[in-house]
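In response to reviewer comment 3 from the previous cycle, which asked for concrete evidence that the modeling workflow produces usable outputs, we include below a single protein chain processed end to end. The sequence was submitted unchanged, and the resulting structure tokens are shown without manual editing.
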Amino acid sequence: MESCPHYETCDAPKCPLDALYNVRVYLRGDKTCRARKATRIALGQYLPNRGLFPREMRGIVRYYGSWEQYLAHQHETVNEGVVS
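The workflow returned the following structure tokens.
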């Protein structure tokens, strides 16, 4: 969490970069995470949800089949843009 660019000013009680995300409580009206998805993925690579909100992770798994297949697709997409 401390690596997040918004860490110093963030008021979100449930941070997707928190290893204890699943035990934190969110109440209606609480602030939410402001970090971009790409930032959260980069910083949360060793966390259970990879820095994603549960809904985002479910969407990736539903569409790609697994996190590993999502990463493979991202790798292929990046390589397609590289000129040899």
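The chain has a mean pLDDT of 90. We consider this sufficient to address the reviewer's concern, and the full set will be provided in the supplementary archive.
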